[in-house]
Amino acid sequence: MNQTKIYGHRGAKGRFPENTLLSFQQAILQGVDGIELDIHLTKDGEVIVIHDEFLNRTTDGTGFVRAYTLEEIKQFSAGSKFSSLPDYEESWIVEKVPTLKEVLQLLVPYDIELNIELKTYTFEYEGIEEKTLALVNEYGNGRKVVYSSFHLPTLLRIKAIDSSASIAWLLNQVISNPLDYIKSLELEALHLHKEMVIDNLQDWQELRKLVRVWTVNQEEEMTNLIDAEVEAVITDYPELAIAIRQERAV
Ligand code: G3P
Ligand code: MG
């Protein structure tokens, strides 16, 4: 049996402030096989871990990420905006937007995979591919890293810099003959929106080990994808997915 891996989406986003060191630490405590995170570049060219192009939704700052230096971004809280989460604590105010280097350092003691999503579909962030590969090379501790992006040229640039890098194309709509893309572009996997897969599990059966599915938060979806033995599910609730996987194994 091929066991589906459980990746924590932006850490453990369902319970903790997304893309923070706290969220990643909690996902690790929950027992994830991997974590997913999103990266952008600051004004001074630092690789930081945040989902949106804007600071507004996830921090108490405003405006474009790329308009601020790292030092300026570090003044903002990345935890105080999450008071709607069920276990919200005021102490979360100390959470900052982490750099990729800080996350890589946090992960050093743990044998887990890392999915770095490069958010390059709105801004190009020139040089982000080289910087990201260099950081992983220096601080990645040899772990499996999968680079994903909706923006295919970013992935091809990564492959051109390092032919051994694992690249995965993020898709939210159907493409014809996916295996041809995988072979031709030397993709390690496709990262598919759940709606592309859950109602068509048979269609993906042969490619199941080349497919990670996001963002899978419902119990029934988790169960069906785990039973179908896809390579990984990416979820806001890794604890729940791990419990379901455990149940299905007995
Ligand atoms: O990598 C899977 C998923 O994170 C892609 O969408 O918007 O959550 O980054 P988004
Ligand atoms: Mg993402």
Name of the CATH architecture: Alpha-Beta Barrel
Shape: globular
Question: Alpha-carbon distance between the termini?
Answer: 12 Å
CATH class wording:
Alpha Beta
Number of strands: 9
Our Rg estimate from Cα atoms comes to 18 Å
CATH level-4 homologous superfamily: Phosphatidylinositol (PI) phosphodiesterase
Q: Helix/strand/pairing class, anyone?
A: alpha/beta
**Strands of the largest sheet, in order across it?**
1-2-4-5-6-7-8-9
* Sheet of most strands: 8 strands, parallel, barrel
- Small ligands present: SN-glycerol-3-phosphate, magnesium ion
Q: Within the CATH hierarchy, at the fold level, what is the topology?
A: TIM Barrel
**Which residue ranges are poorly predicted, with pLDDT under 50 across at least 5 consecutive positions?**
none
The residue fraction in helices comes out at 25-40%
Which percent range describes the beta-strand content?
A: 15-25%
- The helix tally amounts to 8
Order of helices and strands: EHEEHHEHEHEHEEHEH
> Could you tell me the mean pLDDT?
97
Tell me the count of domains.
Answer: 1
Overview of the molecule:
By secondary structure, the protein is of the alpha/beta class. The protein has a single domain, classed as Phosphatidylinositol (PI) phosphodiesterase (TIM Barrel), CATH 3.20.20.190. It contains eight helices and nine strands. Helix 6 links the parallel strand 6 and strand 7. Helix 3 runs parallel beside helix 4 and helix 7 packs across helix 8. The mean pLDDT is 97. Bound molecules: SN-glycerol-3-phosphate (G3P) and magnesium ion.
